[in-house]
Amino acid sequence: MHTDLQTVLRRFLDDYRQAHRLSPREAEVCRHILGCRTASMGGVERCCDRCGHCRIDYCACRDRHCPKCQWRASDAWVERQCAHLLPVTYYHVVFTLPHELNPWVARHPARLYRAWFEAVWATLKAFGADPKRLGGQLGATLVLHTWGQQLWRHVHIHCLIPGGAIDPAGHWHAARSSYLFPN
Question: What's the pTM?
Fold first, then answer.
């Protein structure tokens, strides 16, 4: 049996909504994903000139959260990121927002996410610049995730960080242990 997000939403969304309130944007995304490549989005009938066989190709929702629509964009993004990798060890660091702040996130997402990205970057930058640690400028790719694997709000930022920093003179200082920032 093939299970995808659209199937999961069809099966469980109504029950979920009985106990939880979706924001207008969350409800819109769910509507898009549920309708993606179905008759509700409309379609184009294509018929073969030779045999007369016809089929309908349904339209995509093109929502950035839809896995059916965005897998190509995701793959292209990963390829672009891989082209920029340095030949060094990379560290994966995750900053998780306490779940107690979820109601605030629902009310002011743009404001919170902007402030949080700034705080995460300021923290990483300060640790990287510390002469007791790396003594230079870090680089990083930061990615916001707003949901966990069980499809409940779990706001966190993944950081992919090269294992070192460039000092003011332009020299590379590699991390000196298996931890990016040891005590």
Answer: 0.63
